[in-house]
Amino acid sequence: MLSGLVARGVAAAPLLRESGIAASVLRERGARVPLAAYVALYNAVVHALEDEGFALFAAALRPGTFEFLCRGTAGSRTLGDALSRAARFLALVLPELAVSVSRARGTARLEISERRRLHRRPGDPRRVFAFEWLLRLLHGLACWLAGRAIALDSVRFPFPRPPHAADYALVYTEHSSFDGATLVAAFDAALLDLPVVRESPDVDAFLEGAPGRISILYRRDREMVRRVRELLAKDLAAAPTLQAAARALRLSSRTLHRRLAEEGSGFRAIREELRRTRALARLEDARVRIADIAADLGYAEPSAFFRAFHAWTGESPSAYRKRTRRAR
Q: What is the pTM of this model?
């Protein structure tokens, strides 16, 4: 989010402080910030730059662009119509990227491609965040317009796998791939026929805290996600399975899987989020053995924990512990 701002030589530290975020988190690969602070930083950067596109593009997206996008799509007949309107609007204000929506054999494709190259290096942080941001914006808008979570079956990103790719399961989908020619998000084509339940009067309430608010996954009903998270948090060491969780919640495995998908999540994603958050916190205490942390998180062997932790952070648990101790 800060890459365009930094490239322009604008100091990030004051905006981080304003948002309640310590500048030191930028140097810690596995650091986390509260979601409210992330939203505050989003809005602070937009305000400082007067650009809802974070200085990622040749021309600024002037404040109010997101509002016009919302007003232009609210009142559409179906979600497919709304996304087509969004694509036409973005073609006027964002000439670098093209958005299209299509369907074939039961699958809908939301595609984002470059009309002209954003940056020479495919993995440039500005290019990576430009695609991440626009997909997040369109996905969040679609969820709001339909009044429900829209589950993405898969997303192919047009850049090399970034260090934070493990987080994509929590934001987009568990099924992400990389190095594609364009960004392609696939989902059930029947969702394009959902009626749009938002009208123009609904926009004003939605815009409170915008545009940063769009970075929060739309939640009409996250009750099942909350219940599963609470259930797993009680005893991660038991390595609970989807089947065991379904029995505890008096549901069939199929029903639990479907309910979580409707809320934009999945059992494995919730479990991995808990494991990662707890691992990062436990590793700060040098008195706790890494093998004990692995067992407490439900890993049968420390080696399985090592592999998972490396996938999350790009380093081993012991290297992460040493680095954070030096930083402190």
A: 0.70
